[in-house]
Amino acid sequence: MTTEFIKNKITDSGLKFTHQRWVIYDALHQADSHPTADQVFEDIKSANPSISLGTVYKTLDSFVQTGLIQKFMDQNGVMRFDAIIDAHSHLYCKETHEIKDFRNEELEKIIHNFISGHKLKDFEVEEVSIVFKGRKK
Amino acid sequence: MTTEFIKNKITDSGLKFTHQRWVIYDALHQADSHPTADQVFEDIKSANPSISLGTVYKTLDSFVQTGLIQKFMDQNGVMRFDAIIDAHSHLYCKETHEIKDFRNEELEKIIHNFISGHKLKDFEVEEVSIVFKGRKK
DNA sequence: TTATCAAATAAGAATTATTCTTATTTAACA
DNA sequence: TGTTAAATAAGAATAATTCTTATTTGATAA
Which residue(s) pair with B99 in the sheet? Predict the structure, then answer.
């Protein structure tokens, strides 16, 4: 991912382009899992010792506000940030506490059909969060 | 719900029967929503001023351990406790932040079929958490 | 019933993720 | 290049939860 690409992503979303935002955006996209703010902070710390944890929090949150990334709450009440913004479910392993993405068209269709099938009256669904909890085999 | 009934519930689950556990179990079942530990604490406080918040936390957690109740994390990272232990989904209203139970046999069947239909290889699903996020109509 | 003892509780200190505050710096733009 | 609103660093503040320790209590057996 080039600097130019990231810069465009950020400015296109209406945010000022700053060094901190570039570094944090890049770190989040390089993370293979769903890092916490603190994990992002740790990832960038050595190369960018002057970026503060507060800035990481604030920056990630402004990325969420503008729709660049998603966030969700994990089982332990810690916010996790997700660079992939299209709808997907999560697999949570109770043993290792890993959280993995799970994307499946059939499941999406099934859920979509269920919702449009008038089953949820008095409620307008905007998004669906599915977490499969269990164990890796 | 009689005292005797609650007492049996608690002792059957392998826990000592105490006044505090009785009060907390009762309060949780009388709550119409999914209270936080603090809300349970507030509910019982006036009638039981000597029960401490720490005890509420510990007691709710031992109920979870023994399977008497369930807990889940809400959008704000606060634990919520749920007296109803059979599988169900939640409706989360983004406007009012209310969390309601949603139980639907068809949905349960659909999800069960999806899981047994080999779609999640390398992962053994033990439970599924579905949260519909949106707005009340 | 009473003594015993592991388990439960009260009280409050400690922890930890997150938010807030304020002074300083910086990016964007005229 | 100067101006200004927005962004940042640093660290204090907050709030949910857990931990610690001394005290109390329920269950069991003598």
Answer: B92
pTM above 0.70, yes or no: yes
Q: Confidence band (pLDDT; 50, 70, 90) for A6?
A: very high
What domains does chain B contain, in order, with CATH numbers?
A: 3-82 (1.10.10.10), 89-134 (3.30.1490)
Q: Which of the 23-62 residues on chain A come under 7 Å of nucleic strand C at their beta carbon?
A: 36-38, 53-54, 57, 61
pLDDT tens for A68-86 read 999 999 999 999 999 988 9
Helix residue spans in chain B (DSSP H): 3-12, 19-30, 37-45, 53-65, 105-116
In sequence order, which residues have a C-beta less than 8 Å from that of residue A109 and are 6 or more positions away?
none
Contact status, residue B130 vs residue B107, Cβ threshold 8 Å: yes
Q: How far apart are CA A132 and CA A90, in angstroms?
A: 6
Where does residue B57 rank: exposed (0-12), middle (13-18), buried (19+ CB within 10 A)?
Answer: middle
Of A79, A103, A130, A61, nearest to B133 by C-alpha is A130
Query: How many Å lie between the alpha carbon of A92 and the closest alpha carbon of chain B?
Result: 9
Answer yes or no: do B128 and A130 touch at CB < 8 A.
yes
CA–CA gap between residue A56 and residue A43 (Å, rounded):
11
Residues paired with residue A130 on neighbouring β-strands, in sequence order: B130
Query: Residues of B forming the annotated binding site for Zn(2+)?
Result: 93
Backbone angles phi, psi at A104, to 5 degrees: -150, 115
CA B97 to chain centre: 17
